[in-house]
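re the bet — no i am not wrong, look at it urself. input seq straight from the record:
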Amino acid sequence: MASSLMKSVSGIRGIVGESVTPALINAVGSAFAAYCNYGTVVIGRDTRPTGLAIERGLESSLVLSGCDVLNIGIVPTPTVQVMVEHCKADGGIVISASHNPIEWNAFKLIGKKGTFLTSSEIEKFFRIMEKDFSYPGWDGIGSLSQKSGSDEIHIKKVCSVINTASVRDRKFRVALDSVNGAGSAITQKLLHELGCEVIPVHCEMNGMFPRGPEPLAKNLSILSTTVQRQKADIGFAQDPDADRLAIIDENGKPIGEEYTIALVAEHLLSRQAGRVVINLSTTKAVDDIARKHGAPVARTRVGEINVVEEMMRHGARIGGEGNGGVISPDIHLGRDSLAGIVYVLEMMAERQKSVSGLVSDLPVYVMVKGSVSLAGKEIDRELLPRIQKEFSGQKVSTIDGLRIEFIEHPEFAGGWVHLRPSNTEPIFRIIAEGKDDAQAKAIFDTFSRMVK
């Protein structure tokens, strides 16, 4: 298949017409049917223009393989996870390329526990994909049902973990940018349920992304302006499948997607200490917050399921990733922008503080992110070992690319850098964090030169 096809712990994704083809759709559906032992499968999708056609092909391959399919329509990725659990299904598939550009689409694969497939499970699935498929006769096919009400089930679940009355009493004005994606309707419904006045921005669910699909500060200028002009208390931004959340403060300033998990960690740990699980690329502010509350921190490879596995292995109070992904075990074990929203609103209500006031109480770090394209290129396998050797006196992790935390360094002490190939795009990621702009930029520039 074309080089744009990416198979990893994050699922299967590629460019429609190049690597996402009818043949691939059939292979995914047929293989997942076998993986689930021809049981019940929940499917949902985001609003991408290619989603409906892919959905139809996937339904067909699953039903003709013998599965009973519950189609819950256009919904966030976490809603599919919640519904797999709720319906006691044997698995689930989300048709969404998440933050990738509009020409991409993807299959996110969910096991019967409502979590993404682990590394070993997805490798088993990939092996099934390589085999020849067998299909039942006309009297052995499965069924197809359209299931409504998943939004209400998901909303009830996230509201059950907070004091909804305290949020309703504040009557917050909230600007919401859902990038015309799957979070548009359900998030407005959640906010109305919490007594908020909603100012929608890019909530038309037409699948045409009016900004960059990642909820990065550079993509949120319209939301920032809206918060200022409408005098909103807060602005929330999602990605197309609404598993990630970024926040704009009351002055129209993006706080940085890294600080979504930092705020939630501070809120939950201040009530009850417990284990925190984050990935290697997440801000050091979370470590500082956890230390203040006497909570241990574990870091994992990048990828939601890697964080979730560690949370399940040892138990965790809170987990997540610094890209705006909040994982609350009290709700479900998956990144969920709706979870982040309810916790942050509750925190504002209970502490009687603005967003900027809450953020000012958190540790301050500056992060710089960048990437090098790998399209048509091979990674120099000696690159990371060479860099590791050069910085052998620092704290090093090699479980996912190379992460160096600078313990004793004349220029970089207190900062860190993470170098790794992406799971979701043909790029090599470089993420650096420092105590201020100058240090973060110096770290990033140094390692960017090494990689290039």
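see?? Residues 51-65 form the longest helix (15 residues). told u. also Residues 64 and 138 are 8 Å apart (CA to CA). so pay up
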